Amino acid sequence: MWRKRKDKKYYLYKAEKRYKKQLTLIIFLLIIASFISFLFWQQKYLTIEQIIIHRDNKQMNNQDENYLISEQEISDYIKKIMQKKFLFFFHQNTILSLTKSKIKKELLKDHRLQEIKIEKKWPKKLIVNFSEKQPAALISILGDKDYYLSSTGQLISPAVNILRHINLPLISDKTSLTWQDPRLIKSIDVALNLLQKIQFNNKDINFQTAEIDTDQGVIRLKLRSNEGWQAFFLPTEDINQQVANLKFVLDNYLSDPKSRVGLEYIDLRFGNRIFYK
Fold first, then answer.
1. Distance from CA of residue 106 to its chain's centroid?
2. CA–CA separation, 108 and 238 (whole Å)
3. pLDDT given for residue 135 in this prediction
4. Cα 112 from Cα 274, distance rounded (Å)
5. How far apart are CA 277 and CA 275, in angstroms?
6. Cα(199)–Cα(139) distance, rounded to whole angstroms?
7. pTM (two decimals)
8. Would the CA dihedral through 214, 218, 221, 222 be positive or negative?
9. Of 18, 25, 21, 20, which Cα lies nearest the Cα of 10?
10. What is the distance between the alpha carbons of residues 146 and 161, in angstroms, rounded to a whole number?
11. Three-state secondary structure along the chain?
12. How far apart are CA 242 and CA 266, in angstroms?
């Protein structure tokens, strides 16, 4: 009797376990079917049909050719993102499948863009607000193109029409160093900061061009003044002291414009020993 009860209990246990497995499988298949149905439904009813691109109002002007990137380029970027597939079959072209973070991440791979703000308008509209980076200088690279440079020293894009930005400071790289070389990165950063921020008591003096080259294997930074003479810096050393020395010479020895007639250079690379010719 006891054995029969035990066998019956075991049979019920197996039946219950089999039932739970079947129920779990049915629920799982229903979820999968529902998910696939939802994907087809959103492809039909939530596909993005309108993309509206707005430029930051502060950057608006009446000359489209002065922009580094156009609204149409951004729209084309987004359309390419929408054509990418997920789950092998479905495009990322619906208001749900195309996430804000995905759009922003892909767009900001373009170094011309500064900021992206995205808004979704249900069921089929996407609004993108953007601002682009403003060139702080032009850089001419030995054996390569001219590029726009941001205020942080980052390459933005090739300079497509230099005449449009004729007033930008110009930095020339005459070295053969790679862009990953920390010495070149440091030199460009120093050059950019000097061109943007250096001020003299004599307001008639300013720098608009810089050249980075090597002198006996050591990197040298040459800034050319509007009067034609050059200032030589060692960008890997204390640049603040070199600037202070330059101002000292200009204020105490070369303050008279006549004293700078025929001046070729002021060399600031040797600590407190300052040479000029």
1. 12
2. 35
3. 86
4. 41
5. 7
6. 22
7. 0.71
8. negative
9. 18
10. 10
11. CHHHHHHHHHHHHHHHHHHHHHHHHHHHHHHHHHHHHHHHHHHHHCECCEEEEEECHHHCCCCHHHCCCCHHHHHHHHHHHHHCEECCCEECCECCCCCHHHHHHHHCCCCCEEEEEEEEECCCEEEEEEEECCCCEEEEECCCCEEEECCCCCEEEECCCHHHHCCCCEEEECCCCCCCCHHHHHHHHHHHHHHHHCCCCCCCCCEEEEEEEEECCEEEEEEEECCCCEEEECCCCCHHHHHHHHHHHHHHCCCCHHHHCCCCEEEEEECCEEEEC
12. 11
111, 132, 153: which is the final residue of a domain?
132
134-160: per-residue pLDDT in tens?
Answer: 888 888 886 677 888 888 888 888 877
Quote the CA–CA distance of 168 and 173 in Å, as a whole number: 16
Domain ranges, residue 37: 1-45
Instruction: Verify that 247 and 157 share a domain, yes or no.
Output: yes
Query: CB under 8 Å to 266, separation ≥6 — which residues?
Result: 229, 230, 231, 232, 246, 249, 254, 274, 275, 276
pLDDT band at 266 (very low <50, low <70, confident <90, very high): very high
- Checking if the pLDDT of 176 tops 90, the result is no
**Cis status of the peptide bond prior to 123, with omega within 30 of 0:** yes
Measured at the alpha carbon of residue 134, what is the angle toward residues 133 and 137, in degrees to the nearest 5? 125
Residues 98 and 214 in one domain: no
Q: Which of 132, 154, 169 is the last residue of a domain?
A: 132
User: Do 87 and 164 reside in the same domain of the chain?
Assistant: no
Q: Give me the pLDDT at residue 42, please.
A: 63
Task: Give 190's contacts (C-beta < 8 A, 6+ positions apart).
Answer: 221, 233, 235, 239
